[in-house]
Amino acid sequence: MQRYRPTWAEVNLGNVAYNIKEFRSHIPGPTRLMAVVKADAYGHGAAEVARAALAAGADWLAVALVEEGIRLRQAGLAAPILVLGYLPPESLSAVIQYRLTPGITDLSTLLMMEDEARRQRRKVGIHLKVDTGMGRLGPRGADSLDLVSRVLASTHLELEGVFTHFATADEEDKSFTAAQLDKFKRIVETIKKEKPQAIAHCANSAAAIEVPEAYFDMARIGISLYGLYPSQQVKKLVALKPVMSLHTSIAFVKEVPAGTPISYGRTFVTTRPSRIATLPLGYADGYLRTLSGKAEFLIQGQRVPQVGRICMDYCMADITDLPEAGVGEPVVVFGSQGQEHISADELARLAGTISYEIFCAVSARVPRYYRH
After folding, report:
1. Domain 13-226 has what CATH class?
2. Other C-beta atoms within 10 Å of 74: how many?
3. Which CATH code fits 244-371?
4. Per residue in 6-57, pLDDT tens?
5. Of the four listed, 8, 37, 66, 292, which is most buried by Cβ atoms within 10 Å?
């Protein structure tokens, strides 16, 4: 379909490759890399990012949903795909059909997976998810080893891997991460005695950057695949390049006197004769309403304030200090223009959230254009 509205996200796949290669040089050679492309690659486009990551040296892909894995297979991707999340019983047939690797988190799912594998006369490789402190999915303690025994005794399931997830690896205090790591090591040691080729993995982006003890057989790269650090506390030991930038352009300009209210609720009133630009971008596009009156845009290489409440389809900027800016003028919402840069991290801080949400919020009605 022809796109008419001048609002789009640019995704630099060359920067995906750059980030993978930086991790590849940071992490020891034998350690495999898993590119996490769940949630449509954090809003960047799963198939496109997956291809770029694999071409640059990633070994595995990870998704949260069976449907996400199916879409990658339908896009022609043949690499191993781990489903990290919950597996509804009705999805298990498709898991096998599309050659997805299930992350098993409980005995009930394990038994149903085994029955389905038997029914299809297949042997299915599984990764066992264990809970070492996240408190979300997976068995704890001795229950983990009970599931390991069940898998090892199965004629239709193969214990291909074991993994856990860190709760606080992106914080400066690594003591809880160390405790999780210690629990995971004990489980891995037991498994390796019976299944030395099993793939152990627990390092997320933060641990892959700062915790070498967490590398094991594979590291899972999520937010840092997209060029951002997991938090301000994580040391910048790996050079990263942002992958996505968000753009629009001025749709309308009006000159108004001092004392003119702008947008819903009259939360902003001009204090001087002003030029107000209307931009075709709103919270339906993922430009969060909580940014109202806080964020800035880049226009003509300069920062200008967003003013008034952000609407569903539009928002406004004060361009009084840019007298030559008019309709059609390019606007950067986050990204670079001239010497200035607005990061997703900056918008996240202003909105009281994290960069992950800024990316994931960019809605499907915003087209993605890909650069290599």
Report:
1. alpha beta
2. 10
3. 2.40.37.10
4. 999 999 999 999 999 999 999 988 999 999 999 999 999 999 999 999 999 9
5. 37
